[in-house]
Write a structure and sequence with these properties.
The structure holds 2 protein chains of 2 kinds. Chain A is an alpha+beta fold. Chain A has 2 domains: 4-234, P-loop containing nucleotide triphosphate hydrolases (Rossmann fold, 3-Layer(aba) Sandwich); 241-341, Beta Barrel (OB fold (Dihydrolipoamide Acetyltransferase, E2P)). Helices cover 24% and strands 34% of the residues of chain A. A two-stranded antiparallel sheet of chain B has the order 1-2. Chain B has a domain at 67-236: Orthogonal Bundle (MetI-like fold), CATH 1.10.3720.10. Classes of the chains: A alpha+beta, B mainly alpha.
């Protein structure tokens, strides 16, 4: 039995919206799992059901062998870091961290020790007497984490905790969260809409769309073998190129371009996915196109172009000299593409 | 230092405003320190006289009323108890009812809120006879309970607390829940401290409201032991007015000045808290 088990979890809001549909998931002890998906896909609802902040319409959640469906949030032994941190504005940092412990009837001395230890770990021991309004965004983030850590819960739940920080701080905190999680080995679930965060943080990623789990797997699995068109499009930056095409005897026809897939499939209505960095520019490439737009990103650049009437982009080193309007030649390897059947939406 | 013309003008207006407010009080105070003969012959005074201690002593300790048994000091105590009771209960009750309205999802919460809100249109004066009937049937005439109880519900305060609670982010409640706070703890540990400013402001308003009640105590009390300051203003020191004696204007002014003190004190004491709350915007 897994540490945290979700069985056929369904959430229907009173107004009839189905936020989560028949979701089952097993999470092992010590794992760092990331729920990723576009906003409104039900990932936060799922997290909140685990926390006990949302009722479960159908299904069962069990934690450490106990079914927790009906257990009060405070007794589930989970800690949550909220998007806007939800620090208690009228309490000092110390009291913010100590409040949950006080409610559990832990002795003052023990609370003092625990809070001080965690504060040192997070380097906020200088701030313990301050009120949250006197802290910077990054410091608030640390306090919110400290408040979760100090309770020593069975599970950490993170609800998009980095989205209020600026880019630089976000990267820094991301690393820090990962480091802390490794260090403490506490099972964690992290919700985000940012695929970079998902890829870098998670031991496993759960891609959710429209209340349904599209794919569960390690970042590598998800990136290299997306199960559905949605996952293919959602994970990876820049986005994967998706071409509508017809497959005849293992050859994909995209407008007048032919790509040999080295197999013998026949699909009338298929989607061929090619990552922008799998389009290799070379002077003796088989295909050629006109660059409509070139985006310079420093070490890389992205070229936007068209095959027939289907737009695509490719990513290449900016050392190559190519300007908008130029014609370029490229090569696509039949083994680096992803093929999806449009009638089912899933990988072939 | 240089002043711009507009600045000078605004300051003149402000100073005039202050004078307009303060001068009548000063006149009352100055007059209250004179003996009745000089007030009778010379009118209101601007400068202080010599009868301060005599007048104020008489006001506080002289027994008056029809029974000649009630003192102004007693009336001050009564008013203070009444105002304190009304203000405290109003704040407590409206804070709690707003809490119920905002945080507990029960059916008809919105209609109930509007029902409470509509009572704004029905002030005490409109329902004074039914209220009197109820209080008298309960045997509460001539008691502090009878003075306070019919006035403890406040639609205004409930409304303000409700609006304030609605601005508190849901995450705070959720986070508190995960930290093991039950509904009662959330109210005590979060809502009350967060609404400190609001509590102080409401307490001030409601104290002054309770203190200045006139009609209700007038109808409610037949026993002079329960008279309040505002009622007394009409009644006390008037017993000989139609006789040959001089009107006791000095004492009456002293009484007015004294009657202003409790609300002023409440404002002065609570405003520090009030302003502190305003400066530290905590949210």
């Amino acid at each position: 039995m897994s540490f945290l088990e979700l069985q056929n979890i369904t959430k229907i809001y009173p107004n009839g919206t189905k936020a989560v549909n028949e979701t089952s998931l097993n999470i092992e002890n010590g794992e760092f799992v990331v729920f990723v998906g576009p906003s409104g896909c039900g990932k936060s609802t799922l997290l909140r059901m685990i926390a006990g902040l949302e009722d479960i319409t159908n299904g069962e959640i069990s934690l450490d062998g106990n079914i927790i469906n009906k257990i009060d949030p405070s007794e589930r032994d989970v800690a949550m870091v909220f998007q806007n941190y939800a620090l208690y504005p009228h309490m000092s940092v110390f009291n913010n961290m100590a409040y949950g412990l006080k409610n559990r009837g832990i002795s003052k001395e023990e609370i003092n020790n625990k809070v001080n230890d965690v504060a040192k770990l997070l380097e906020i021991d200088q701030l313990l007497t301050r009120k949250p309004s006197m802290l910077s965004g990054g410091q608030r983030q640390r306090v919110a984490m400290g408040r979760a850590i100090v309770r020593n819960p069975k599970i950490f739940l993170f609800d998009e905790p980095l989205s209020n920080l600026d880019a630089k701080l976000r990267n820094q905190m991301r690393l820090e969260i990962k480091r802390l999680q490794r260090q403490m080995g506490v099972t964690s679930i992290f919700v985000t809409h940012d695929q970079t965060e998902a890829m870098t943080l998670g031991d496993r990623i759960v891609v959710i769309n429209n209340g349904v789990v599209e794919q569960v797997g390690t970042p590598k699995e998800i990136y290299s073998k997306p199960n559905t068109k949605f996952v293919a499009e959602f994970i990876g930056s820049p986005q994967m190129n998706l071409f509508n095409c017809k497959i005849e005897n293992g050859i994909a026809h995209i407008a007048d371009m032919k790509i040999n897939l080295n197999n013998s499939t026949n699909i009338d209505d298929a989607t061929l996915g090619i990552r922008p960095d799998d389009i290799l520019i070379s002077d003796n490439g088989k295909h050629s196109c006109v660059a409509n737009l070139v985006e310079y990103l420093g070490s890389d650049m992205i070229i936007y172009s068209k095959i027939g009437d289907q737009e695509f982009s490719c990513k290449l080193s900016s050392k190559i000299n190519l300007n908008a309007g130029d014609t370029f030649k490229f090569e696509i390897s039949g083994t680096s593409v992803h093929l999806f059947d449009n009638t089912t939406g899933s990988r072939v | 230092m240089k002043f711009k013309p507009l600045e000078i003008l605004t300051h003149i207006i402000l100073i005039l405003g202050v004078l307009l407010m303060v001068l009548p009080i000063w006149f009352s105070f100055a007059t209250s320190t004179h003996d009745n003969v000089s007030i009778m012959t010379e009118g209101m005074k601007f400068f202080l006289g010599e009868s301060f201690s005599q007048n104020y002593n008489e006001v506080l300790n002289e027994k008056g009323g029809w029974s000649e048994e009630v003192t102004a000091a007693r009336m001050f105590v009564n008013s203070f108890i009444m105002a304190l009771g009304i203000a405290t209960l109003k704040v407590v009750i409206s804070a709690m009812s707003a809490y119920a309205l905002v945080y507990f999802r029960f059916k008809l919460a919105v209609p109930i809120f509007w029902l409470i809100f509509i009572t704004l249109l029905v002030p005490l004066e409109v329902r004074i006879f039914p209220s009197y009937k109820i209080v008298s049937d309960l045997g509460l005439t001539n008691t502090y309970t009878g003075l306070i109880l019919p006035l403890v519900a406040s639609a205004t305060a409930t409304f303000f607390f409700r609006q304030f609670y609605k601005t508190i982010p849901d995450e705070l409640l959720e986070s508190a829940k995960l930290d093991g706070a039950n509904s009662w703890r959330f109210f005590i540990d979060f809502l009350l401290p967060l609404s400190k400013t609001m509590l102080a402001a409401m307490f001030i308003f409601m104290f002054v409201y309770g203190y200045s009640q006139y009609l209700w105590p007038l109808i409610m009390t037949t026993d002079e032991k329960y008279w309040t300051v505002v009622m007394g203003m009409k009644i006390i020191f008037t017993e000989n007015y139609e006789g040959v004696a001089l009107p006791r204007t000095g004492e009456r002014f002293a009484y007015i000045i004294l009657s202003m003190l409790p609300p002023v004190l409440v404002v002065v004491i609570l405003q520090r808290w009030f302003i502190k709350g305003l400066i530290q915007t905590e949210k």
